[in-house]
Amino acid sequence: MAEIHELSSSESQSVNEKTATFIEKDPEGYAGKGIATATYEVDDDTSVDEAIGIITDDIELNSTLQLVTKTLDVTDDPTLNPYTFRSFFLGIGLSAFGAVIAEIFYFKPQTILVNAVFLEIIGFILGEAAALIPRWGSVGRFLNPGPFNMKEHVFITIMASSAAVCALGTEQLAAQSLYYNETPNAGSAIFMLLSSQLLGYGFLGVMRKLFVYPTKMLWPLQLPLASLFQSLHLNKTLAKKRLKVFWYVFIFIICWEMIPEYIFPLTAGISIFCLAQQHSATFTYLFGGANGDEGLGFLSWCMDWQYVGTQSLVLPLDTLFNQFLGYIACICLTIGAYYSNVWNAKSFPFMGQVLFRADGTQYNQTEILGPNNEVDPALVESYGLPWFTTSNAMSLLVMNVGITAAVVHITCWHWNDIRTIFVWAKPSALKAHYYEAKADGRYKFWTKSTYVEKFPGTEGDPHFAGMRKYKEAPTWWYIFVLLASLVIGLICNYQQKTGLPWWAFFLACLTAFLFLTFYAPLFALTGFYYQPISAVQMIGAFMVPGRPVANMMFTLYASNSMVQGLYMLQDLKLGQYTKLSPRACFTAQIIGTVVGAILNWVMMNSIVSNQRDILLSVEGTNIWSGQNVQSYNAQAVAWGGVGHQLFGAGGTYILIPIGLVIGLLVPIPFWLAHKYWPKLRLNRINTSIIATWMGWLSVGINSSLLPYFIFGVFCQGYLRRKRAVLFAKWNMIVTAAIGGGVQIIVFVLTFAVFGGSGAAHQFPEWWGNNISGNVDRCEYMNG
């Protein structure tokens, strides 16, 4: 193994103002490199630590172990206490903010995720401010136990990020209210949310070590978060400089976003083509995209960071490349299918998530429902089968391809990384493990509470070794969460009369467990996953046909539980990188999830009550949209209500489930070709990402994609490679400032003028604020 010599603070004189040198000592000629020296340009303001980070980031890393030891500090101070009054107070406060803003974003024309880096930055600012409280008397020392430490900070951030998600259960509750005139009582609704959110955590009681302990389980999206924690706490001088830039960008974005979001909405989708031709349906479909479900937004320019987002600023260039391939293919596929009249495309709107009748009118599902919301075959016969818009159906098809392509991709390209995960399942391994556990008392899982000394795949990992001093969260904690979630979920299922039998409920939970087994290594190794809702709905439809609400409940527990499990795994890995004890991670996640679920429900009720008509409309507005709820309900009716007629043999949409079979095949040609012609670099092709993005434009505001790719390539293709110092110093901070500024102003405008808790107050109509049509001046087609 190569011996890496890194510059340290004591060697600061060896770094001059303009260059920094990295020497790799390799007496054994590891990887055939011998001794290598590299010189890199840095600026006068670059610290030694930054120079080291820039250099090691650019040098090829031969293993995951080298990556995590070079990019992250492995030192730890076990005396630091995460359990302080301010950590709980700030954690719960940020959890409340994150949960409310996540639910607001869910009812936007384009679904946006709460920026975890922003939560990390704002948590640091508030924590440092809390450390200024005078320590007078016992009260003062209770409020301010001393300097704000990194473990408090990680504890706060994990709690807030656990809350800052929109619980899928609120989508089901919204659908029941909007389409079935059913509103479960508050107790039943909240307990259902808690059950569905925590069930995935319970599954990890027997799985978490497999996907957290091994070094290969990198969880790459957590590396920038862990690195930023260390930058803020291990170098206070540098932290002050970065926070100064953060505030400048943060305040600018807050002021700027007032323009595209409220005063001048045209800037959310400037389309030269639509401004030149305002009475062409084709131009609307191809170039329009500033309103929800308007068009594909090709060559439109969006100046609203709410929709451009910051994800492309941090995604790897290869991921952006695959997304771009899928984006171009999506435009060609959608336009081609519509004008070829595939699935009677021209009879329906160009885009839309609701169901339609054959004559193009909106499908009224109540016409086919009998008692207990079950589909009556005789009523279906007289009323007719529902139809999807072709863009929506195409999206379901290619995203099904992406679901199974992900499994095959991870198996083909990363089998050596994940095969050790399944060794434990061999009968011989299980037998050996049983006798070994019996010999030293480990079968008594409730007594085993320390980090294990050895675990396959952790050899030489200082991050894993550094956690041995902390007590592991007992397995019985997870088992208790699992059993409680199952019992509460089953009770809520019957209390709400969803029609889902008990055996199907448990099969839904088992489905989530199986998906988690495959998607956890995919997410851990690549940082990418796609929620397999369509596949889950198909499984539920064939188990319990003719019951749309039952299908929604099945989907909730089979899909959402998997996602929550993935979130908990990545937070546990973040805890390992930052040396926050597993028990503290567990505590933060449970508190954040409980707070988040309750406030998700409160905010959902307010939005559904005040924006009901808009949420039921096909297009919505550029402020509010029911596209997520519409899609969830439409697929529940299609799959759960009349799935056999639509997707079975001879059905109109039989190709959609066949997409799962196609997905098993599409990665293989690229994998085989790469084995014979590696110079083609076909290993950069990820068919799962491409297929998923081929259905990306079927919904929402699409005017943001051009700046999304341009800014992403600028940061990852130019700054990262040509201006590595600037990228290393400022990219994460600027990203957090942009995301945070957007979230703050959206939060304020939602309640001040957008009608989040009452009547909306539109900005006066003028040329740049076309209230009566599409804001980009394309012809309005969904009136």
From TrEMBL:
Does the UniProt entry include the keyword Lyase? no
The GO annotation for biological process reads: protein transport
Q: Which InterPro entries match?
A: Oligpept_transpt, OPT
GO terms under cellular component = membrane
Q: How does it sit in the membrane?
A: Multi-pass membrane protein
Stored Pfam families: OPT (PF03169)
Alphabetically list the UniProt keywords. Answer: Membrane, Peptide transport, Protein transport, Transmembrane, Transmembrane helix, Transport
- Which compartment or compartments is the protein found in? Membrane
User: Domain of life here?
Assistant: Eukaryota
TM segment ranges = 88-106, 112-133, 154-174, 186-207, 245-263, 324-343, 476-496, 502-528, 549-569, 581-602, 653-673, 693-719, 731-754
The protein's GO terms of the molecular function aspect are: oligopeptide transmembrane transporter activity
Family, per entry: Belongs to the oligopeptide OPT transporter family.
Name of the protein described by the UniProt record? OPT superfamily oligopeptide transporter
